[in-house]
UniProtKB/TrEMBL annotation:
InterPro entries: 4Fe4S_Fe-S-bd (IPR017896), FDH_Electron_Transfer_Unit (IPR051555)
Highest taxon, organism lineage: Bacteria
Upper taxonomic lineage: Bacteria, Bacillati, Actinomycetota, Coriobacteriia, Eggerthellales
Protein name in UniProt: 4Fe-4S dicluster domain-containing protein
Natural source organism: Raoultibacter massiliensis
Residue stretches making up the 4Fe-4S ferredoxin-type domain: 4-34
Length: 114
């Protein structure tokens, strides 16, 4: 069985928190828990007129890649609701190929397989 995961393109994440809210609503999580959590990196200047300021959606231990949704042929709710379309779901080997195509991406793969 193939391992599945998320490819997150944090170059294009706008920091809207839609992934967090959609996940909380889908799984009935309390307001202080998340299946995916948005982390803000920066801002800081690391060279003259060059700033680091990024948002990075980070899946947590509570992320099960929306196993119930996926079993019905749907995508995980964070992927479905991402307004910037910067989260992709698929087989990890295919996501890894896409990871090599451009910088500022990360792969999340839980220990479970679907």
């Amino acid at each position: 069985m193939n391992a599945y995961g998320l490819l997150i393109d944090y170059q294009w994440c706008t920091g809207c928190h839609t992934c967090e809210v959609a996940c909380q609503m889908e799984h009935g999580l309390p307001v202080d828990q998340w299946g995916i959590k948005l982390v803000e990196v920066g801002p800081w200047e690391y060279a003259p007129k060059t700033w680091q300021y990024t948002y990075l959606p980070v899946p947590t231990d509570q992320c099960d890649l929306c196993a119930d949704r996926v079993s019905k042929g749907k995508t995980p709710t964070c992927v479905h609701h991402c307004q910037a379309k910067c989260i992709e779901y698929g087989p990890v080997d295919e996501l890894a190929q896409k990871l090599a195509e451009k910088p500022k991406q990360s792969i999340f793969c839980p220990t479970k397989t679907n």
